[in-house]
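Quality-control log, excerpt.
Job 1 of 2 completed; input and output follow.
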Amino acid sequence: MERLGPFGPAPLLAVGVSGGPHSLALAILASEWVAVRGGRVLALVADHGLRPGSAAEARAVLAQLGGLGIAVRLLPLELSPGPGLHERAREARLAALLAAAGAEGAPWLLLGHHRADQAETVAFRALRGSGEAGLAGMAPARPAVEALVLRPLLGVAPGRIEAFLAARRLDPLRDPSNDDPRFARARLRLALGDPGGEGPGIAALAAAGEGFAARRARMRAAMAERLAGAAEFREEGWARLDRAALGRDAVAEAALSALIRALGGGVHPPARAAVSALLARGGGSLGGALWRGGLVLREPARCALPVPARAGVMWDGRWRVLSAPGGTMVGARGAGPRIEGLPSLVAAGLPVLRNAAGEIIAAPGREGGWAVEFSPISGPLA
């Protein structure tokens, strides 16, 4: 934990707990670590609701954690069956965990991924043709809007974690889907054939991930330096970009990709070949962002449809509603009177508040009893 800090006095740590061996062990270790520092742990248990008896399993996990003196909170996910279930479940669970951590005022969210998980991630991404950034695997620390995501067990073999629980005579929950060959990750796990995570295959994959992670860190540092000299960011969610200062090398491509992802509201970065082509052209549209002249901004025609304006709602992958009157909707401003100091294309993509009749009741530069912040779903540019 110390290498992931600093944490300051009396830290509040949120821990995502499925009830499986790794997250259960993490909750115990985190609780003991934080207790001597005057802090506390809150275990967040998500019920995906996809299997008969999942609610009972979640209640059993809550009871087990409570018996260990760990505070708990249940998070119902209410997922529906369908394609991409595992991936959708992971995304929904992480979103729910982050939202709960933010609501509880916990600046850190701990997840129980271990060494074999990292190896599987590297192998899985390699099979999918991921680039260097993807082959770096999961980061030990990753910033999100609501909390800093930490993975303290990322270098620990799962066999050691199982031994820790066995020594304490604790019986964790076992998810049968982890070994279900219908799922790609389960097939990969079976192919690796190393449940303890201590064999040479897992070691090689984990080492490869560490090497790519070091390269990723160097690239991110270079990218941040390049953006600092080439881009001028504005609070309305756009930027002025100096093409000459940006350059034409690999660092320029990475910086432009991050810029497009954040200002365009994308969850995933655009394809590398598309970024390279955009850089060569010196302008154009990609990933929901528009590069025109010295401006990079959200392409107004690609803005999301209006959604109910409730506190915490993310609109268009870029704007988070902090507060708003009931019964209102947040959506794109569209064409309208000129706003001083803002290019018309930027103004068209700004969020506004509308009433039930569709009339704008709060627009940039006007009072309206609401508040939003530019908080791209992709997180910080680096």
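Job 2 of 2 completed; input and output follow.
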Amino acid sequence: MSRKTVIYWRLSNLYFWFFALLGSLLPYWSLYLEGRGFSYLQIATLMATIQLTKIVAPSVWGWIGDQTGLRVRLVRFGAVVGSLCFAGVFLEPGFYGLLVVMLLFTFFWNAILPLYEVITLRVLGSKKEKYGRIRLWGSVGFIGGVAIIGAILEFIPITMLPWLLLPVFAGIAVSAFLVPSERGARKSTAPNGSLKAIIGHPAVIAFFAMNFLLQVSHGAYYTFFSIHLEQHGYGKLPIGLLWSLGVIAEIGLFLIMHRLTRYFTVRQIAIGALLLTMLRWILIAEVTDVVPVLIFAQLLHAASYGALHVISVQYVQGFFGQHHHGQGQALYSGLTFGAGGAIGAWLSGFLVDGFSTSAAFWGGAVAMVFAVFITWRWLQPPPESTAT
């Protein structure tokens, strides 16, 4: 086996297990919390912690990674300590105890991916077009987690979910120690502009605003999609398969994304993806009972996550450069997935508690209207962007 092949699989491995945990957790954790007797607002608050710690954790770990260059060691540390913190779930604490456990667990767990994105892109060097092919293994892991856990939960109580997650945590810990070492590489001594100046650029502000609203719109999806489907008579295995279908579409997008960036600008791809995302939330809100339409809506995950994430990772690299890459990736994770995801989860909780799960998805569609306008008006391509 060639050295390039070994590096490819070692880079892909952690993506697989990290997203296998996400696939095992996201679709079923709200159902687990519902089974534990928590209210919709409590469920929204607990689910929001998964996004909330992304506001702080990636910035803290990204700064340490930029200063020391020891990102691989930090990834390993986050994988092990995050797994140990999750063990607090087995004590079956009440609402506030579980809130503390999830805050601690996600603080370390959410440090892994932004650091690892930097590691992967630096290993790839000038061959960044291969990023999608490596990242797709995360999607494969997500599908595997969703399908296997969903099938098992058809036969055992949802309260057993934490025990089913243990092998996945073990996979993350082991794969973290297979990541090639950076050998203590330090940050560059030649910055490509101050971090403050980069963040203050109108195009960068528009980029973060677009992604913030995108993640606000996903709040209902990540928090209440499974509950929404269960209310419409879907079983746990069909729910898992529908989650998996979205990620299958995402994989297909990753495989062809490098071709799309040859023919469309960053702005064109972003606006098209945002419009499709708005359509997706409307279809889920209003046509849940029509299976073919729901399948189509899930296929639009290729746009609402896949396309926008690929151009966003490259956007951060283009604007923040090597010197601020870690902090840029942390800001992308914190301000969008973190702040946007947490606020979206809370808002969806209020909408579900006051109205219905459908109302929460309509709220996501409204957020997309503002995102489209901001993107159309202010988004510009980054310098040295791989998307023309």
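Post-run check on job 2. The chain has one domain: 3-378.
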